[in-house]
Amino acid sequence: MDEKKSPLSDLMNSTMEKVSQMVDTNTIVGEPISTPDGVTLIPISKVTFGFGSGGGDYGKSQPKENFGGGSGAGVKIDPVAFLVIKDGTTRVLPVAVPPVGTVDRIVEMVPDVLDRVEKYFDKKKEKEID
């Protein structure tokens, strides 16, 4: 059974292509961030998305001239945690603030996360020395 090409299917395909461009693995598992003291941070996010399409075909004799349609999509990104890698040890550092979903808030949190990571490893070293 051949799938007929229609303006609605073209609209839905176009919407799904755009959503897949926005949501890829780099959105969920971010690019590693390396610090001068040898700590690597990898941001982990939760991605939620949805889309909808609809349309009508109002004149069977000339469907291209009478088609009406629309589509929409939304993406929400919530920071969840950071994978912290130092000296071959990997830890999960959950994000303590409520998820906000904007890149600006994540960027604001990076210095605080780095400070927390440094304190964690400093405390671990002190325990090993004692």
Structural account:
This is GerW family sporulation protein. It is built from four helices and four strands, in the order H-H-E-E-H-E-E-H. It has one domain (7-129). 6% of the residues are buried. With 130 residues, it is an alpha+beta fold. The chain has a four-stranded antiparallel beta sheet with strand order 1-2-3-4, sandwiched between helices. The mean pLDDT is 76.
Strand coverage percent: 35-45%
Low-confidence stretches: none
Instruction: Using the CA coordinates, give the radius of gyration.
Output: 23 Å
Identify the overall geometry. Answer: rod-shaped
Structural class: alpha+beta
Tally of distinct domains: 1
**N-to-C series of helices and strands:** HHEEHEEH
Q: Main beta sheet, described?
A: 4 strands, antiparallel
Helix proportion of residues, in percent?
25-40%
Total DSSP E strands: 4
Number of helices: 4
Whole-number average pLDDT? Answer: 76
Pfam families: Spore_YtfJ
Protein name: GerW family sporulation protein
Organism: Oscillibacter hominis
InterPro entries: Spore_YtfJ (IPR014229)
